[in-house]
C-alpha cells in the first residue's frame, strides 16, 4: 500500500528535499506551502502552515496519513526586540507544528505513523544575538516533540531533526558554504542530507526511535572554541 505523508514547507529548502526523497521512495506527498510552485507530483495545499483550516484541508486530502513532517518556518529576521517579529516567528515555527500535531495525531495513531519536526541547533544548543524568537521557537520544538512522543505512544513516534548551518535560501549564509572554520567538517550541510535523515526517521528502520533530537551540524556543537561564528 502506498503511504501518505504531509510535508509543510514543501516548496523550498529542507521541506522540498524531503518531499522529493519521499516521492522517490514511493510515497504520496501532500505539501503545505505559501509558495504555489511545489515539487512535481506533490499535491499542494496553498496556505499558511500554521493556519488550522489549511492544515485541516491537507488532512482531508490524505484519507489515510502515515507521516507528518513540519519543515515550514520563518528565518531569523528583524530587530531582536521587535514584539511583532517575535509573534510572527513563534506563530509559524512553534505554534504551527503544535496545531499540525494536535490535528493529525488521531490519523497517525490509526496508521501507527510518525512525525518529524525540523528544529535547529540554535536555541537548544546555541543562543542567538540576532533572533531570540527563532531560538525560543526551535528550543520549544524539542519540548513539544518529547511531549507528543509521550502522548502519542505507543502508536505514534515523534522526533526532531536539528540542523546546523545548511546551504539553502532560507537563511542565506554570510560565509562561503564550503569554507567554514566554525564547523569541524569544514562546510555547510545540504538540504538533501537533512532530508535523508528525516526519511529514515519516518521508516521501519527507526521504529524504536521516539522523543529524540538528532543534531546534523557537521560537528559544530562539539567544537570547544569555534574560530568564526557564522
- Label the structural class: alpha/beta
Strand order of the largest sheet: 3-2-1-4-5-6-7
> Got a strand count?
7
N/C terminus separation:
45 Å
| Spans of at least 5 consecutive residues with low confidence | 226-230
- Estimate the mean pLDDT confidence: 92
Number of helices: 6
Helix content: 25-40%
Cα-atom Rg, whole angstroms?
17 Å
The assembly state of the depicted protein chains is: single chain
- Share of residues in strands: 15-25%
Describe what you observe in this structure.
By secondary structure, the chain is α/β, with parallel strands linked by helices. Helix content is 39%, strand content 15%. It has helices spanning 13-24, 52-62, 83-111, 121-124, 132-152, 191-202; strands at 4-8, 28-33, 43-46, 67-70, 114-118, 157-163, 213-216. The protein has a 7-stranded parallel β-sheet with strand order 3-2-1-4-5-6-7, with helices on both faces. Helix 1 (13-24) packs across helix 6 (191-202) and helix 3 runs parallel beside helix 5 (132-152). The protein starts with a strand and ends in a 14-residue tail after the last strand.
Per-chain topology:
Elements: E1 4-8, H1 13-24, E2 28-33, E3 43-46, H2 52-62, E4 67-70, H3 83-111, E5 114-118, H4 121-124, H5 132-152, E6 157-163, H6 191-202, E7 213-216
Parallel strand pairs: 1-2, 1-4, 2-3, 4-5, 5-6, 6-7
Summarize this entry quickly.
With 230 residues, this protein is α/β, with parallel strands linked by helices. The protein is built from six helices and seven strands; from the N terminus they run βαββαβαβααβαβ.
